[in-house]
Specification:
Largest sheet: 8 strands, parallel, barrel
Strand order of the largest sheet: 1-4-5-6-7-10-11-12
Mean pLDDT: 94
Order of helices and strands: EEEHEHEHEHHEEEHEHEHEH
Helix content: 25-40%
Low-confidence stretches: none
Number of strands: 12
Radius of gyration: 17 Å
Length: about 250
Amino acid sequence: MLRTRIIPVLLLKGESLVKTIKFKNFTYVGDPCNSLRIFNELEVDELMVLDISASKEKKSPNFSLIKDMCSECFMPLSYGGGIRTIEHAKKLFDLGIEKIVLNTYAIENHLFISQLSSYFGSQAIIVSIDIRKRRFAKKDVFSNTFKSYLNLDPIDWAKQAEELGAGELLLTSVDNEGTWQGMDFDLIKNISQNISIPLIAHGGAGNLDHIKKAIHEGGASAVGLGSMVTFQKKGMGVLIHMPKLENFN
């Protein structure tokens, strides 16, 4: 049996790590490099950093900070935020990034997924999809950059991203993100049943049962964790750690 992948998903705002609730209510978590050193000591298998302000502020990736992070990070590191050109991607891979994560620009320019996939290989391309409920519980792809719904059916967009060359999907439920109340298991299951590439489920995990359910019932290939690896417990202070995963599978 393949080992379950548990991936800390860290949010970068400016040059600080933050944690959000439903993409709002920013809480300062710490310095990125210091946090990565702690994850090194925790022997985390892989890690993801998403710059949540780069695209919104129309900035390129902060290559200087990413270089520092790569020099401190001993595990495979994925990065997303502000990637809009082949040159951006090439520079990130040259710095040591293992996979790049596309969100805003993949929506604006679908063919960018294909271009990157052809150039670097699909295994290096993750497409991030944020989902939020509309009225009457209808779920739609949501852009945090533009703060708007995109009138895209989540399943259709997931299938299209795969066809365009994504090697993996990161699926985030905006309504569940940072709540500790459980993940959107129906959404995870609906997406996983309609794609053949790995799916990273993200948003809402508050305990090990949530993680297990996303994997075993939802069909996710991996789970991304935010609050569970940055806070002691719900409502408590910052503490970089990893849940004990012995006998998890």
